[in-house]
Amino acid sequence: MPVADKLRARIRRDSPRPRISLRDRIRQTARGLFAREGYESVSMRRIGAAVGCSPMAIYRHYQNKEELLLSICEETFSRMIQLLDQESARPGPALERMRRCVRTIVDFHISHPNHYKVTFMTPMPPGPVAQRKVAIGQPVMDRLRDGVRECAREKGLTEDEIDIEMTAQIIRVAIHGLAGSLITTGKCYPWHDPERMKDEMILTVTRQLE
Amino acid sequence: MPVADKLRARIRRDSPRPRISLRDRIRQTARGLFAREGYESVSMRRIGAAVGCSPMAIYRHYQNKEELLLSICEETFSRMIQLLDQESARPGPALERMRRCVRTIVDFHISHPNHYKVTFMTPMPPGPVAQRKVAIGQPVMDRLRDGVRECAREKGLTEDEIDIEMTAQIIRVAIHGLAGSLITTGKCYPWHDPERMKDEMILTVTRQLE
DNA sequence: CATCTGATGTGTACAGTGTAAACATACTTG
DNA sequence: CAAGTATGTTTACACTGTACACATCAGATG
């Protein structure tokens, strides 16, 4: 019997199941716990207790703890893409728009340190998990590349005069430098005004697009 | 009885104790294990087994696992300072020297990913541990600042024309961007030639010193 | 209706972790 | 020699992620 039939059956069914599925409640609860206390500090047992189910129930919906977190990250970063597109839709010169977008990304990462940490600060042994993490960053990278291309076009630069992929990757590295530094050493380091730092850094890596 | 006396006594003693102290053997063995397999994958029990002592013996010499690693990191990064000073002592224009130094730092981090990870990629709740980690990076930052200052002087820039601390911190952020990105997503990401990337990034953040 | 099946939850158990506490031994010093 | 201290071991505890076997129950099928 095909799996699709069973799925359809479940969807057609209108019996009074809990209004919001356990799967979603788990993800929602875990999101809060992870964000507040960090991935490693939160055990599956505590998530279960907070949700109101047994710890093993979580495994019916997520293969393991890492999958649970990765699923949360995917959701988080898809919200970032929304923010990004809406920012990039506002009018103005391409360069200004892209600089604001980069700012948006940096600020988003800093305000979601745990999601950033697990997605971008955990060394990935090559494998399927690594591929999913790369995939999470892909939409952002696409928009970055498009932004660079548009800036180049607006300034009349040919593809011989500027390496678009390289420029995009440099901006990417700058983003991760800012996010990583400010997340790990945020409060402990004598930063020279973080806000101005972000702006200067963004200016520096987009200067060749002026 | 003062502690200093006991220490002196131990040093004066020439009895046939093991030629290299257990403390050093632990650090040396743990260094290798951490570097090869990563901090979290190596348990105190395995370190003990590899050294040839009981796991709890380690605690006589290091307060806990984190202290052990931190001690290893301090040693590692002090070797980096040596490399850095010897590189910076070579002749040539200040700008060229500084660019080579930045390259040295980046390459050093990439070839010691586990030390980098624990020192710079683990969020630090403000406290004494965080202070020690900041202290580890301080000598590097001092040399960076000096390098920037010398470049500025060589080009005749006054302190009104260039914010030395800000410039140094931007370079620092670029270093961590490169190191972090290449360490976490090194093999998994379609990098546009990492070596050229490093060079371009370094050029970008030192352009205003040309 | 009775029966069967698959999805979803629970309880128990296991192998592993870092490390606190009590104990054993050997070396230094009064 | 006696006392004390530095250094090591053994045992035990509280915790982790999760494999496995079982219970329950909704819907499909005879």
What is the gist of this entry?
The structure is a homodimer of 210-residue chains. Chain A is mainly α.
Low-confidence stretches of chain A: 1-17
What does the average pLDDT of chain A come to?
88
Q: How would you spell out the order of helices and strands of chain A?
A: HHHHHHHHHH
The largest contact between protein chains, plus residue counts on each side, is: A-B, 43 and 43 residues
Distance N to C terminus of chain A: 61 Å
Number of helices of chain A: 10
Shape of chain A: elongated
The portion of residues forming beta strands of chain A comes to: under 5%
Structural class of chain A: mainly alpha
Strand count of chain A: 0
Multimerization status: homodimer
Radius of gyration of chain A: 21 Å
Plain-language structure description:
Two copies of one chain form a homodimer. Chain A has helices at residues 3-12, 22-37, 44-51, 55-58, 65-89, 94-111, 113-120, 128-154, 164-184, 194-206. In chain A, helix 5 runs parallel beside helix 8 (128-154). Residues 1-17 of chain A have low confidence and may be disordered. Chain A is built from ten helices and no strands. With 210 residues, chain A is mainly alpha-helical. Chain A binds chain B through residues 38, 113, 117, 120-124, 126, 130-131, 133-134, 163, 165-166, 169-170, 172-178, 180-181, 183-185, 187-189, 191-192, 196-197, 200-201, 204-205, 207-208, and chain B through 38, 113, 117, 120-124, 126, 130-131, 133-134, 163, 165-166, 169-170, 172-178, 180-181, 183-185, 187-189, 191-192, 196-197, 200-201, 204-205, 207-208. The structure holds a DNA duplex (30 and 30 nucleotides).
